[in-house]
TrEMBL record:
Lineage of producing organism: Bacteria, Pseudomonadati, Myxococcota, Myxococcia, Myxococcales
InterPro entries, per database record: Aminotransferase_I/II_large (IPR004839), HTH_trans_reg/aminotransferase (IPR051446), PyrdxlP-dep_Trfase (IPR015424), PyrdxlP-dep_Trfase_major (IPR015421), Tscrpt_reg_HTH_GntR (IPR000524), WH-like_DNA-bd_sf (IPR036388), WH_DNA-bd_sf (IPR036390)
Record-stated family: In the C-terminal section; belongs to the class-I pyridoxal-phosphate-dependent aminotransferase family.
Organism for this UniProt entry: Anaeromyxobacter dehalogenans (strain 2CP-C)
PROSITE patterns: HTH_GNTR
Descriptive protein name: Transcriptional regulator, GntR family
UniProt-recorded Gene Ontology molecular function terms: DNA binding; DNA-binding transcription factor activity; pyridoxal phosphate binding
């Protein structure tokens, strides 16, 4: 950092009038340098300015600066002022908050798994749940966000917690056209991704001890969100038609389902099963959270009508996200709720984060109103379809009868069960990683022990890398060579 161009840091020093003022200033500045808060090349305030802020004599600050300079922590340069010297080795761990051994989270939080670390970058990346950032409409998005920020005076106060009215109206129209969701602007609440939507629904509908039905295998973050609120998750099996409605306990308060593209196995919920779930909800009074996972990327078959469109009693809360269509880092999601829940959900959203990013919401509205979101979806659908077809061909060519492909007509991944006699999935994943291939085992999605297998995503990996990646995965499925014992 060049001290000639570096701005002066806004330095906080707290002095106790009962102590030695110069010594206190010296100690706090030295600690800030050693723990990395003050970095090499950063310019400190002039002695006269810092003395004025601290309401002490200039000699007090001058003495502290001189002592630090003598020990090699600070340098002075004519015209540049006083700055942190190069070569001072700061503690790589940085400053830490107190350990706080006396404070403990509630038991429900202690039992939740830690968020997974970002996956390591591997040459053949079949990670699940990630879109290709290279396909994002960067120019169109950048222009619209810039237009929102350029030449406009921000309104005083805070935007509405449920989101910008124009953006909610745009998303209601988009969902109505693209997914047949029955909603107006007042039914839509914009959220920070689908995960916040699940959290808000849980806050409004669940009390500690309530039972929540989740698919097994299913989406672990949904299960964790409800358990963090004190609810008890009840795993319910899925079959070729989706959630097994006959296995639902009668006393559950809420059911979380992914009917358009079951996560992680991939099958859609049949119309017969959807109607059975709605009828069950009417009999028991339970709510249904329809997580419309990956519904935008449908490759085969007729479009499936969402549960929300079939619902006539107002028992379904529809949850969606733009993380796959656009970018996960934008954190743009939504929920569509029955009118009876909207006031409470708005209040929960206000308490959760006050409001979302207004400029991004308005840029999204323009993307929808200009027809660019629909055009973007059509474009990326073609790209992902090619990758999906290449993946199917490569699996058939290299893996043969060692895996069983599960049917899926939508989404950005395919799931596979291991055929009998193959290595267990953890061993397959370990060997694949050693060969530069990232695959996702199915075990973490099961609440109870399930059939071993793995999922292969094609959202990130370029089409020309798919065949080689599957060839390497086939090598990972080969049993290790037997170790020959020497003859005696």
């Amino acid at each position: 950092m060049d001290p000639l161009t570096s701005p002066t840091v806004d330095l906080h020093v707290s002095l106790d009038r009962r102590g030695r003022l110069a010594a206190d200033a010296y100690r706090q500045l030295r600690e800030a340098i050693l723990d990395g808060r003050l970095r090499a090349g950063e310019r400190l305030p002039a002695t006269r300015e810092l003395a004025r802020r601290l309401d002490v004599s200039r000699n007090t600050v001058l003495h502290a600066y001189q002592r630090l300079a003598a020990e090699g922590f600070l340098k002075g340069r004519a015209g540049a002022g006083t700055y942190v010297a190069e070569g001072v080795r700061a503690d790589a761990r940085g400053r830490r908050a107190p350990a706080g051994a006396a404070l403990r989270p509630r038991p429900s939080w202690r039992s939740l798994p830690a968020p997974p670390a970002p996956p390591a970058a591997l040459p053949y990346d079949f990670q699940v749940g990630a879109p290709d950032p290279a396909l994002f409409p960067w120019d169109a998005w950048r222009w619209r966000v810039s237009r929102q920020l350029r030449g406009r005076r921000a309104r005083a106060g805070y935007p509405p917690p449920e989101g910008d009215p124009g953006a909610r109206a745009a998303m209601a129209r988009h969902l109505g056209v693209a997914r047949s969701v029955r909603a107006g602007a007042d039914d839509v609440i914009l959220t920070s991704g689908a995960q916040q939507a699940l959290d808000l629904v849980g806050r409004v509908l669940l009390a500690p001890g309530d039972r929540v039905a989740v698919e097994d295998p299913g989406y672990p973050p949904a299960r964790a969100a409800f358990e963090a609120l004190g609810a008890r998750a009840v795993p319910v099996p899925v079959d070729a038609e989706g959630l097994v409605v006959d296995a639902l306990p009668a006393d559950v308060r809420l059911v979380h389902v992914t009917p358009s593209h079951q996560f992680p196995l991939g099958m859609p919920m049949s119309l017969r099963r959807r109607q059975a779930l709605l009828a069950w909800s009417e009999r028991t009074g339970a709510a249904i959270v329809e997580d419309d996972y990956d519904s935008e990327f449908r490759f085969d078959g007729r479009p499936l009508e969402p549960l929300q469109a079939l619902d006539r009693q107002g028992r379904v809360v529809y949850v969606g996200s733009l993380s796959k269509v656009l970018l996960p880092t934008l954190r743009l999601g939504l929920l569509v709720a029955p009118a009876s829940l909207v006031p409470a959900l708005r209040a929960a959203k206000a308490l959760s984060d006050s409001h979302g990013p207004l400029e991004l919401q308005r840029a999204l509205a323009e993307l929808v109103d200009d027809g660019l979101l629909a055009r973007h979806v059509r474009r990326v659908l073609r790209v992902y379809r090619e990758r999906r077809d290449r993946l199917a061909a490569a699996v058939a060519r290299h893996l043969g009868d060692r895996v069983i492909a599960l049917p899926a007509s939508a989404g950005l991944h395919r799931s596979f069960h291991l055929a009998g006699g193959c290595a267990d999935e953890a061993e397959v994943v370990r060997r694949a990683q050693a060969l530069g291939v990232a695959v996702q085992p199915l075990a973490p999605y099961h609440a109870r022990p399930g059939r071993p297998g793995f999922a292969l995503g094609y959202g990130v990996i370029p089409a020309d890398r798919i065949d080689e990646g599957i060839r390497r995965l086939a090598a990972a499925l080969e049993p290790p060579p037997a170790v020959r014992r020497p003859r005696r």
